[in-house]
Amino acid sequence: MDLREILSPDCTLSAVRDTSKKKALETISKLIAPKLGGVSSDDVFDSLIQRERLGSTGIGLGIAIPHGRLSHASHPVAALITLETPIDFDAIDNQPVDIIFALLVPENEPEAHLKTLSEVAQRLDSKGCCRKFRAATSHEELYTLFTEADAPCN
Predict the structure, then answer these.
(1) What GO terms describe the biological role, i.e. biological process, of this protein (predicted)?
(2) Cβ distance 66 to 57 under 8 Å?
(3) Residues 99, 133: contact at Cβ < 8 Å?
């Protein structure tokens, strides 16, 4: 999958100053909602929070992949942020998180949802890539690094 189909430059932020999981999810919700036409940022936030209640999407090594399904969404949309200071995200390794990739998909597309999550997790599994994502000095650089067809650091 070409990540540029779901992640746009205006949904990619580097060095965000959010200081909590809730604030980070609110920031992500505000980025994603306009891309979904007719879906409010509250709807996006509620979907992400409902998923977090099932278990943290903090996958370890400073990374979280919050995700959710929306009945009103017509296509998948993602957001990527890095945080200036890592935050507690209840990650499985109990380490704070500073890279967050969020994905919202239509409720009726569970296969696409799982496939996309798998591809993103593989991209974030590279320590070299994550080092570069964390070092990005602009939103544009972060977007370019993350969406290059061949991961820039594998």
Answers:
(1) phosphoenolpyruvate-dependent sugar phosphotransferase system
(2) yes
(3) yes
Torsion sign across C-alpha atoms 146, 148, 44, 27: positive
Joined together, the tokens standing for residue 92 give: 């499985």
Are the CB atoms for 56 and 24 separated by under 8 Å?
no
- The verdict on whether 67 is a catalytic residue reads yes
Domain extent at residue 134: 3-147
Gyration radius from the chain CA atoms: 14
Say if residues 51 and 88 touch (Cβ distance below 8 Å).
no
For 23, the token pair is 């604030």
Number of domains in the chain: 1
- Among 67, 72, 113, 139, the one annotated catalytic: 67
In a domain, 153, yes or no: no
d(CA 53, CA 60): 17
Give the confidence band of 38 by pLDDT, cuts at 50, 70, 90: confident
For residue 109, pLDDT over 90 is answered with no
Map tokens 């890592």 to a residue: 86
Domain CATH number, residue 137: 3.40.930.10
pLDDT of residue 120: 87
CA atoms of 117 and 122, how far apart (whole Å): 9
154 in a structural domain: no
